[in-house]
Amino acid sequence: ETGVTQTPRHLVMGMTNKKSLKCEQHLGHNAMYWYKQSAKKPLELMFVYSLEERVENNSVPSRFSPECPNSSHLFLHLHTLQPEDSALYLCASSQELGSAETQYFGPGTRLLVL
Amino acid sequence: KNEVEQSPQNLTAQEGEFITINCSYSVGISALHWLQQHPGGGIVSLFMLSSGKKKHGRLIATINIQEKHSSLHITASHPRDSAVYICAVRSNYQLIWGAGTKLIIKP
Fold first, then answer.
1. From the candidates B10, B95, B101, which should be mutated to test the interface with A, based on the most A CB atoms within 10 A?
2. pLDDT at residue number B8
3. Could you tell me the sign of the dihedral formed by the alpha carbons of B80, B44, B68, A59, in that order?
4. High-pLDDT (> 70) share of chain A, %
5. B48 near B105, Cβ under 8 Å?
6. In this predicted model, which residue has the larger pLDDT, B23 or B38?
7. Across-strand partners of B71?
8. Chain A residues with a Cβ under 8 Å from any Cβ in chain B
9. Exposure of A29 by Cβ count < 10 A (0-12 exposed, 13-18 middle, 19+ buried)?
């Protein structure tokens, strides 16, 4: 248990569906992250939030929409996804946004887009 | 070419063997992380290094800043060590990830 939880753990959706991934951290951290992990590829950073403000968006398609209502919760809203978006989506948090901060990861949501 | 290279990509060994996983990087870094990803996706942070060596149980991580190289060693390996081991470096507030090394320890 790392103190970061993600729901759902598994999700299958069609290309026209709208769904949301949820991440919650119980560590009192101020920074949260969304990563995408595709098969046989390095982790890709999607979004970074610090104190509920987005600080980084690594050219992610608009069909992925993040939301950070408070420092403990992070959502990733999904709509009109493509089959190539099938991947493991990982949420992480760190105490602060900084170069030497350790990130604590949730278990991930395994997404399959049909 | 990826800025963080890990080797080997896959490693299968017998229980009890001494395991070494290597990570080389080509950028200036402020820290290097070793992480472990279990089947099913859960990731655990093992070490954060900026110099020297760290030890935790049967795991040892070393880093040579001049050579831009780090190694993760597992002594007396056990089947429960089977996982993907990922190296990630912090460079200019970015976290750059290696592709991971898949380790299988056979009983």
1. B95
2. 96
3. positive
4. 95
5. no
6. B23
7. B22, B62
8. 2, 37, 40-43, 45, 88, 90, 92, 97-100, 102-108, 110
9. buried
